[in-house]
Amino acid sequence: MVYQIIERLLEIDQLKEVPRNQLEWLVEKSDCRSVKQGDYLFKKGAPIDKMYIILHGHFILKIQQNNQFRVIGSLEEKAITGALPYSRASIATGIAEAAENAEVLALDKTYFKEMITDYHELTTAFVHVMSTRIRHFTKLQQQNDKMMALGKLSAGLAHELNNPSGAVIRSARMLRKHLALLPEEFKKVIKIKIDDQQLDIVTDLLFDKIKDGVQHIPLMEKTDREDSIASWLEEHDFNDGYEAAENFVDFNFTEEDMDTIAEQVNGKDLVPVVNWLNQVLATEKLVNEIEDASQRINDLVKSVKSYTHMDQAPEKQPANIHTGIDNTLTMLNHKLKKAHINVIKKYQEDLPKPMIYISELNQVWTNLIDNAIDALEDAEHKNLEIQTKQDGSFVKINIVDSGKGIPDEVKDQIFDPFFTTKAIGKGTGLGLDIVQQIISQHNGTIDVDSKPGRTEFKICIPIA
Prior knowledge:
One of its GO terms (molecular function) is phosphorelay sensor kinase activity. This protein is of the alpha+beta class and 464 residues long.
């Protein structure tokens, strides 16, 4: 039996150069286990205290996200998994379920010290396995992190685009319905007899009001003025006075303006003229709403383009730090509004433009601001403060939140790869590791000060 297992181990690429006597030691110290189809090699939360070599069969790897298990890969025949020499992993984060009846060699990690001391080739082989596993896991987690970031970005865009696009559709439908009423009103208008001077007074008044645009009047004052205009309209035989009064007040018409119009128009022609004026104002307002909503969509698309820097080569160039931060805030605006977070900007207006990789640094702002939003979830006062200033030949950026703070016992670990205090599905533990890598890529530094009610990430980037 031992001979057969050793022959099986020699078929594994990572172990085929290991001396036979060391493989004999491995088999002697290990247990050979049978795992039935549907049973588990390990479960979530179990201690990682054994190394496993799969001699026969294969296992499905799953992790739990949002109360459901998701398949993330498999362990095939000849795979080496579980605890490895020098590995710091201690608790399983997922499960390995047997897809068929399997045979597994299990070595308890208590034998690692003896192996490291006396069996160097065997130890080296397993260290190489660990290095490969780290590279693979890092690549997988980075991909997951990018997909999560893309998901957040997509959700934010969908949310931010929903309101202006809905406004465009709503205003366009109202405009179509509104324009359908114009022919009847036009027939009444062209029958009116009015001299050029009178016409000029009315049209000059109208287009002066349109030129000034819709006015933002305090609610109480606006209500009083609408009542006044509505009463005037009804006194002059105008139907639906209150509906038309809103348009006239929006464009700052007063009772005196309405009297001016009445003075220039024959009594029987007053209603058609006022109807025509109301139609022009309503059309203007709907067109303005469509233009404003379209501009918001255009601004958002520009922010996305600038944020991703999709139209530029990935090279360092002088850039406005504030533009990147503001674009990031635009991308995350839906989360900021949903959480009722107060954003405070303390920007140095004449801040120099450092040489940076724009898209990469936007990832820094995204990770730090997104983390701050999460930290403020249960905070009593929800403030996010962003400070920028020049300090000699450096630019300093501080991102401060009023959340619960980072516990002292984990403060030294927050930049470690895969370390996270978030629940599964909410974070990969790569965000701050990526932030640190990008800041280092810019020859800069990042530090954190934290206490309950104030966490401050301090970034320093050279200008040149």
